Amino acid sequence: MAKIFQVSARAGMTRVVEPLARGLLRAGVTPNAVTVTGTIGVLVGALGFGARGHLVAGAVIVTIFALTDLLDGTMARMSGGSTRFGAFLDSSMDRVADSAVFGAVAYWLATEGNHRGVAAALLCLAAGSLVSYVKARAEGLGMTANVGVAERTERLLIVGVGGLLTGVGVDPALEIALWLLAAVSIFTVGQRMTHVYRQAQSQPDGVPR
């Protein structure tokens, strides 16, 4: 059910993103430029606003710029596919942005004395990195790991909604969102490792660990 919802949501976003992607390509904007701009926007939202306790502004800015993760990928496909450097840049900037978001959340929660929330934020950061690492390592070994209920955009949207609700007075929302996100991310790691294991079982060995 989660996967069906995820696919439906992404299909709806695609109808919005594709016209914007075409317009940017016509204007001469490159996918890499969108990647860098999106990362800068997330950094501003997370470190400039969220870490200082301006949760509503931070959540809105981070959520908007996190959606550029869909935009740059769409632009790359429309322009003939992502280059190797483009794929490298995208993955690298994703890690920078994720570190800023969860680092900012952990910092703000620490200033509020919410140690459980800090632990949840750090767990989200670690689990999110594992989600990405498992996929990258699998692809490096000639397999795929494009499965799971918590991909990057969904993870940032969850923490964004939690931050927004806490910012308008629903105090436990951010901590709840973080623990939910940590659980979903760990589950996704398990899904991807299982998926890779099944592929490895059906393929001959010969790749050193």
How would you briefly describe this protein structure?
By secondary structure, the protein is mostly helical. The N terminus is likely disordered.
How many β-strands, per DSSP? 0
Largest sheet: none
Estimate percent helicity: over 70%
How many angstroms separate the termini?
Answer: 35 Å
Helix and strand sequence = HHHHHHHH
Q: What is the strand content?
A: under 5%
Shape: globular
Which key terms come to mind for this protein?
209 residues; mainly alpha; Four Helix Bundle (Hemerythrin (Met), subunit A); 8 helices; 79% helix; disordered N terminus
Describe the structure.
The protein is mainly α and 209 residues long. It has one domain (2-199): Four Helix Bundle (Hemerythrin (Met), subunit A) (Up-down Bundle). Helices cover 79% and strands 0% of the residues. The chain is built from eight helices and no strands. It has helices at residues 2-26, 31-49, 55-66, 68-78, 84-111, 115-140, 152-167, 173-201. The chain is globular. Mean pLDDT is 89; it is low at 1-5. This is Phosphatidylinositol phosphate synthase. Pathway: Lipid metabolism; Phospholipid metabolism; phosphatidylinositol phosphate biosynthesis. Its EC number is 2.7.8.-. Belongs to the CDP-alcohol phosphatidyltransferase class-I family. Mg(2+) 1 binds at residues 69, 72, 90.
